Amino acid sequence: MKRQKTRRDFIKSGAVATGAVAATPYFNWSAKAFANQDKNDRPNIGCIGVGSMGSGDARGHANFGNIVAVCDVDERHALRAKNDGNIGRGKADAYGDYRKVLDRNDIDVVSIVTPDHWHIKIAVEALEAGKHVFVQKPLTLTLEENQLIRRACEKHKNLAFLVGTQQRSDRNKFMRAVNMVQKGLLGDIKHVTVGINGSPTGGPFPIADVPKELDWEMWQGQAPAKEYREKRCHYQFRWWYEYSGGKFTDWGAHHVDIAMWALNRNGSKQGPVEIDGTNCEHPVEYKDGHATVEDSYNSSHKFSVMHKFKDGITMDVTSHGDNGITFEGTKGRIFVNRGKIVGAPIEENWDKDVYTDEEVSALYKGKPHEGHKNNFYRCIREGGLTVSDPFSHIQAMAVCHLSTIAARLGRKIKWDPAKEKIVGDDQAASFQARERRKGYDILKV
């Protein structure tokens, strides 16, 4: 009698070296869960960060494995996820310290959906603990963190790592646009407009008492210690440069990523050479790249950051116009966002002969096209890079971080993509990394 595969067989098979011939999966990937419904055939998952976005991601992960632990520095979030019928089902352990999740040998996969300034510290430690890793975008907080996570992922190539940029799995819009550009159907690309809207403005916000359920010290982590203000925490962290990059990293992590993918610029040593941040405004006064007040949103709300590449292509990362990406080539132009893909090349179906299942699979790194998390769990099983792998994503994040630095300083800066350094401007170069509070450094591997 043939022995059924167990969960440990599943995890062991996920350690196939990258590049090895992938075996046909034993489960039906058209189903939401594994074909064999025995509990021992599903990997155990720990979800770190289970606020609004984290809970949504957790429900997605629950289709592929057993969520045995949830963690959040806000006890309200952790308990809600624990008792959610589609997440912890009342059975998962709830923690306030992510290290308790990583310490568990029975957990195979971790989902990291925390504020941005926590992503890389937890991800590196998760890899060192032997976990497969899902991380929400944006992957990194700084240019230095790009290098730190790259080294960790190079060391742990046997572990699957997926970034939550789900637009990479949108076959009918974003993937079609990428394929059209890469096949040269628009001619030589001259200019790309990346519309990501501006950050909201707000403040001054009052100092408030820290909710008794919230570990504010742990929430702040590596960031500078600040008085608690409700609008600094949870979803609103995005609009403070202390924890994020505003819209540059919030929506930029999605749209800049697609633009760089389409241009084949997300490989090593690729990127812009000049970034112009002179056409940017912030809702508060700035001095030497830092906000002069602490009680108001401080990320840029109006901007047009122009990136120039060595071959003459320009990319405008802007708050103006529609949210979406416009590719302009010598033969035609298209616009794509989450709601539509338009332009004469689309209406006239220029890509009817070159957008096949085979082309889609090629964009998916040889895997069949499927849902974003489906791809992650397939790569755990079969090996290989995920469709949104960390190595390509950090190239897009470099553009996002350079946009932020140029905007904060309000001037042009020069970037050496081969050396991954800002050149000729010591002040700008000082923004490549951030001083981390004692006790919150990132493990170097």
Molecular structure report:
By secondary structure, this protein is an alpha/beta fold. It folds into two domains: 7-168 and 373-382, NAD(P)-binding Rossmann-like Domain (Rossmann fold); 169-361 and 390-432, Dihydrodipicolinate Reductase, domain 2 (2-Layer Sandwich). It is 29% helix and 16% strand. It is built from 15 helices and 18 strands. It has helices at residues 7-13, 52-61, 75-83, 98-102, 119-128, 143-155, 174-182, 216-220, 247-250, 252-262, 344-347, 357-363, 372-382, 390-409, 426-429, and strands at residues 44-48, 66-71, 93-95, 109-112, 132-135, 161-163, 189-195, 274-276, 280-281, 286-287, 290-291, 302-308, 314-318, 324-329, 333-336, 341-342, 412-416, 421-423. Helix 5 (119-128) runs parallel beside helix 6 (143-155) and helix 7 runs parallel beside helix 10 (252-262). The longest helix is centred in the last third of the chain and has 20 residues, at 390-409. The termini are far apart. Mean pLDDT is 92; it is low at 1-39.
Our measurement of the CA-to-CA distance between the termini, rounded to an integer number of angstroms, reads: 45 Å
Please summarize the sheet with the most strands.
10 strands, mixed
Residue-averaged pLDDT: 92
CATH architecture of the largest domain: 2-Layer Sandwich
CATH class of the largest domain: Alpha Beta
Summarize the structure.
This protein has 445 residues and is of the alpha/beta class.
Helices and strands, with pairings:
Blueprint: H1 7-13, E1 44-48, H2 52-61, E2 66-71, H3 75-83, E3 93-95, H4 98-102, E4 109-112, H5 119-128, E5 132-135, H6 143-155, E6 161-163, H7 174-182, E7 189-195, H8 216-220, H9 247-250, H10 252-262, E8 274-276, E9 280-281, E10 286-287, E11 290-291, E12 302-308, E13 314-318, E14 324-329, E15 333-336, E16 341-342, H11 344-347, H12 357-363, H13 372-382, H14 390-409, E17 412-416, E18 421-423, H15 426-429
Parallel strand pairs: 1-2, 1-4, 2-3, 4-5, 5-6, 7-13
Antiparallel strand pairs: 7-14, 8-12, 8-17, 9-12, 10-11, 12-13, 14-15, 15-16, 17-18
